[in-house]
Amino acid sequence: MPSSRRDFIRQASAIGAGTLISSTLPSSLAQQVSAQPSPTPIVIASANGLHAVVKAMEVIQTGGDALDGVVAGVNIVEDDPNDTSVGYGGLPNEDGVVELDAAVMHGPTHRGGAVAAIRSIKNPSRVARTVMERSDHVLLVGEGALRFAKTHGFKEDDLLTDKAREEWLKWKENLTTKDDWLPPHDENTQDIGGLFAPFYRNHGTIHCSAIDLKGNISCVTTTSGLAFKISGRVGDSPILGAGLFVDNEIGAAGSTGRGEANLINCSSVMIVEYMRQGKSPEDACLMACQRIVDHNRMRRLKDDRGRPNFDVKFYALNKRGEFGSASLFSVGKMAVHEGKEARLVDSAYLYKR
Fold this sequence. Notes:
Helix content is 33%, strand content 21%.
């Protein structure tokens, strides 16, 4: 992306962040965004959600709530043993145990629910919804989340497939000092950490947002997290404001990619706030990308050109049914369904690979 474009995004991001901290935005700005709600339902998702948006649209077109649709959509991916980034078949942590994270947000009631580091449950997105609907909490983790799920009738399964086990064994057989356990370091330390390990580290996740026939917005994000992570590691996916966020009068946003970068920037809530200020979904996603770049101070997380050596992708839609996505680097895509057929759409980006 040309430097002038990046400069604009950087300046806009700084102005937006300052506005959020210093004052409450006039309601007229929110009304400007939401004055013309989407006349037709729409579903968006990360690129691995092509089948998910089809299912979600089917649910919505028969009168289902947007949350019914997006959860049913991602369940397809959670149930797929060939998808090693979500649910059943997800790649395990460093101990060979699959730990899952998920969160939902329901626009009309502005409620949310989430689970993190939950084991033995194939559909964490459904458990997250149950947390929202059947508890006074927002986030449950680990053993407590599992007990809660079992209490509500969820069945335990062995989530480690043969395919995922082989990938884990390959990782263990090639262990070096370059894993997620770091020695003491500062912002100038280079070449440490799992990002540099000589094997593939899966960061896959699925996010799905939708507007239903009533014009209401909901979303879900679900993942098995970073492959071979330290046991108990939780990324951005189950954290409201980071892995996803909804304001029913404005829009929704979600993310995939390096969760640690997104967690320390609370990107999804920022994207919704940028849209509240009148930014398009695509521009709002680009501004969130630039915010991550601007805050990426650690030398070990930069390439030899000073750019991040990781990627993060964002997906957003607003109340009018406009949508967009963006990533740090090129070749990203998003899945979209506007009522007729599902398709993949190119994402905007900051840097060309």
